[in-house]
Design brief:
By secondary structure, the protein is mainly α. Helix content is about 80%, strand content about 0%.
C-alpha cells in the first residue's frame, strides 16, 4: 500500500510539472487567437472548482451559479469602464458576488434539497431578466468598450502576458479552494453533507456553515466572471442564463466531483469538446449529451475514477479466475472421490463373491 501511495505522489508530481511546462510554453506554441481559447479554459476551471465547493464538499445542489458569475462579470465591466485598476476590479467583483450569494442563501435560510436548487435557479433567472431589461447594463447587447491594459505594472495587451496573468489568478483561486477543502471548515462541510442531523446534534451551526459555503462559492464564481469579462471584452445577459449554470455541473460530472481536480479536468474536456463540435455541427449539444450519458453509465464518479474502475475490474477478473480454478479443483476432487468409491464398491463385491 505504501508503494502504491508513493507511486501516486510521483505521478501527481509529474503531472504538475507537465502542467507548469505547458502553461509556460503555450504562448510560444500556438497562435495568439488560440490563446483566447485557453484563456476561456482557465476561467472555466475556476468556475467549476468554485461550484464544486457546493456540490462535492457541502452537498448543496445549486442550479444558479451563473447568476453570481454574471454579477462578477458585470461588476468588472462597469468598473473597468470607469478606469478602475484591474486588481481593484477583481476584488470588487469578488465582494459583490459573495454578498449577493450570501443574501440569496440567507433568504433561503430554511430551504434545503430540491427546493433550494429551484430557488437558486430562480435567482439566476431573475438576474438574467434584470440585466436584459436594464439600460445601464446595455440590455440585450450587454457591455463593451472596456479592456485591461496593465495588471500590477505588467502590460497585458499582449495575449501571451494576459494568459500568464489569467493562469496565475486562476491558480491562486483554486489554491484557495484547496486550502478550504483541507481546513476544519471543509471537514465540517463534509460532515454536514454526510449527516446534517447528527452534525446539528454535535453543536454545528449547519445553516450558518451552508450560508458561508454558498458565499465562498459565489465569490469564486464572481472572480471567474470578472476574468471572463477581461478575456472576452464583452458581457451579455446570456452569462446569467440557466444554460450557463448547467455548464459547471456538467464539468463536475465529467471530471468527478469527489476529486478536487475533477472539475478542472471536466472543464478542459467540456470546453475543448464544445469548441471542436461547434465548428463541426450545429447539433453539438446532442453529442455532448451522448458523451455525458456514456460517462455516467460506465464512470459514474467521473473520468478521474478510471483507475479505480480498472482496479475493480482486474480484481473481479482475478476473483472470477480464482473461482473457476477453485471450481475446477473441486470438480476434480469430486471425480476422484467418485472413482475411489467405485473402486471400493467393486473390491467389496469381489470379496463377497
Amino acid at each position: 500500500m505504501t508503494g502504491f501511495l508513493t507511486l501516486r505522489r510521483v505521478a501527481g508530481l509529474l503531472v504538475a510539472v507537465l502542467v507548469v511546462l505547458f502553461v509556460l510554453a503555450l504562448p510560444f506554441m500556438v497562435a495568439s487567437g488560440d490563446i483566447f481559447f485557453w484563456d476561456t479554459v482557465a476561467v472555466a476551471v475556476l468556475f467549476a472548482t468554485s461550484t464544486n465547493l457546493l456540490f462535492g464538499q457541502a452537498g448543496i445542489p445549486s442550479f444558479g451559479q451563473a447568476g453570481f458569475y454574471a454579477a462578477g462579470a458585470y461588476t468588472a465591466a462597469l468598473a473597468a469602464q470607469r478606469g478602475w485598476p484591474v486588481l481593484a476590479v477583481l476584488v470588487l467583483a469578488i465582494v459583490i458576488a459573495a454578498a449577493l450569494s450570501a443574501i440569496a442563501a440567507l433568504v433561503a435560510w430554511r430551504i434545503t434539497g430540491l427546493a433550494f436548487s429551484m430557488f437558486t435557479l430562480a435567482v439566476a433567472q431573475s438576474l438574467y431578466s434584470f440585466a436584459l431589461k436594464n439600460g445601464t447594463l446595455g440590455g440585450y447587447n450587454g457591455l463593451t468598450g472596456f479592456s485591461a491594459t496593465s495588471v500590477a505594472g505588467v502590460d497585458v495587451t499582449d495575449p501571451g502576458f494576459l494568459w500568464y496573468v489569467v493562469v496565475i489568478i486562476v491558480a491562486l483561486g483554486c489554491f484557495g479552494f484547496w486550502v478550504i477543502s483541507r481546513s476544519s471548515f471543509g471537514l465540517t462541510m463534509r460532515a454536514i453533507r454526510e449527516d446534517p442531523v447528527r452534525s446539528l446534534f454535535l453543536g454545528v451551526n449547519v445553516r450558518g456553515y451552508r450560508v458561508l459555503a454558498f458565499a465562498l462559492a459565489g465569490a469564486g464564481a464572481g472572480l471567474a466572471g470578472a476574468l471572463s469579462a477581461y478575456v472576452n471584452l464583452v458581457v451579455t445577459p446570456d452569462t446569467a442564463y440557466w444554460t450557463a449554470s448547467a455548464e459547471p455541473i456538467i464539468m463536475l460530472l465529467l471530471g468527478g466531483m469527489s476529486f478536487f481536480f475533477g472539475p478542472a479536468v471536466g472543464a478542459v474536456l467540456l470546453t475543448a469538446l464544445m469548441h471542436k463540435l461547434m465548428n463541426m455541427t450545429h447539433a453539438y449539444v446532442l453529442y455532448v449529451g451522448i458523451l455525458l450519458y456514456l460517462i455516467l453509465l460506465f464512470l459514474p464518479r467521473g473520468v478521474l475514477s478510471l483507475s479505480e474502475v480498472a482496479r475493480a475490474f482486474r480484481r473481479r477478473l482475478s476473483g472470477d479466475a480464482q473461482a473457476v480454478a477453485a471450481g475446477t479443483a473441486g470438480e476434480r476432487a469430486a471425480d476422484a472421490a467418485d472413482a475411489t468409491e467405485q473402486e471400493t464398491s467393486i473390491v467389496g463385491r469381489g470379496r463377497t463373491q
